[in-house]
Amino acid sequence: MRKKSQTIDAFRLLSVLFRIGFRHPLLLLTLLGTGVAGYVYEVRIARPALLYQGAPQPLSAKNADTWFRIFRNHGFILGYSDLRGNPLWVEYALTPVEESAPSLKRPGRFETDWRSINRISHDSYQQSGYDRGHMAPNYAMSRLYGKQGQADSFLMTNITPQKPKLNQRVWQRLEEVEINYFAKTFGKVWVITGPVFNGTVERLASAWMVEIPDAFYKIYITEATPNTKPIALGFLIPQTVKGKEPLSQL
Fold first, then answer.
1. Residue 248 reports pLDDT greater than 70
2. Mind listing the pLDDT tens digit for each residue in 208-237?
3. Is the pTM of this model over 0.70?
4. Average pLDDT of 133-160?
5. Which of 125, 133, 149, 249 would staple 75 via disulfide (CB 3.0–4.6 Å)?
6. How far is CA 104 from the centre of its chain?
């Protein structure tokens, strides 16, 4: 009954819009023009500012496992898979943190992203044995992009299942190094990160819509200057790490 009611409401809305457009064509053209202008701004200006040489592209458009929708957030951008319940890639830029940047209190809960179809929530990970692993890190987003950047980093579309020894040890150390050393050394560093799946599907016992990655990648790229070429550094980190491994061995 609920789906039928929603369908009827949608038809009613379309009918109202049609009547308004028929009676006020100039208003309809204005609304359409605003929508087109907003789309052009999003695709041509807003998104490219958060991307290093464009958005990642799937190797095969026929493989549903690689489909994603692009969500732009404050300070970072990502490609989200509703099918896997994971961001397939997340990208952000790091710069040195100003000494005057405030240290914000960490939020107590993660928030469901209104843009997601699968409606994954904070409680979806409860008693799953996995941490809620940030892809765009809380510390860097809060220090560089303020309260809104931090809030966006706590959306569940920025989260993926990580084993505690990975999330609380290796991943945390890497997040500290990238903002405290890489950014200070190179001035601006682009980061592209996300989960890796080996083809065997395993999902959270607490939430079947969340697929468990087998590993995670992080790629760091410096910007080229007239006198220097860009430098790239990559990490591939399995879920099975013990937590004490030197970053140089990953």
1. yes
2. 999 999 999 999 999 888 888 999 999 999
3. yes
4. 97
5. 149
6. 20
Q: Which residues pair with 134 in a beta bridge?
A: 159
Q: Are 174 and 140 in contact (CB under 8 A)?
A: no
Rounded Cα distance, 56 and 73, in Å:
17
Q: Which of 142, 154, 170 is nearest to 249 (CA)?
A: 170
Measuring CA to CA, which residue among 235, 243, 236 is closest to residue 169? Answer: 243
Residue type, 97: V
Contacts of 227 (CB under 8 A, 6+ apart): none
Phi and psi (nearest 5°) for 141? -65, -40
Contact partners, residue 74, CB within 8 Å, separation at least 6: 141, 145, 146, 148, 149, 151, 152
DSSP run (H or E) holding 95: none
